[in-house]
Amino acid sequence: LGIIGVVAALTLPSLISHNKTVESVERLKKAYSVLNQAYKMAELHYGEIENWDWNLSSKDFFNKYFIPYLNAVKNCENNEGCWSDDGVIYLLNGNPSEIIKSNQYAKAEIADGTFIAITNQQEHAHFYVDTNGSRRPNTNGKDIFIITLTPKAFIDYAHKVDHKGLWMFGTGLSENQLKANCKAGGNGAFCPAYLYSNSWIIPKDYPRY
Prior knowledge:
This protein is of the alpha+beta class and 209 residues long.
């Protein structure tokens, strides 16, 4: 019994961590599907994405093109709620990054408890997906994932895409770039693209909870 207890003490935390990671990735896949379906529905209603009004505020853009098709259980717009109280997103290395609290972001909660925030950058938009709602760790690659919406080809430090669409942050970068970013001690912002490029299979070196 003593040996069994020691083995359980050693393996149980690892198992719990693995299960949380799997659950988070499954929720990311679902959120991506929900957003992609909403994007397609909005195109049917408003026309091609390149003809949308990209000068709208984040709140107005979200309310017009996505909220009607997300089946959101709560639309917090620019108000409190639909995100952690302090709004801080952490990097995998533990450093604080963005704060989802300003009027630059609009937020909503979908049916499974996932939070979605959006910031419209005028030529593209970023969705921030928090797969476990207000609970911690609020960290890139663990429960926070970034998805980019672009009306055209888009190339910058985090994207190399040749046409419009909804893309995981980091899409188009090399495998080495994705792996270097998505590891313990890294930034974690490219983790969505790392997962997507691996057919949603969690790599052995992927950062766990």
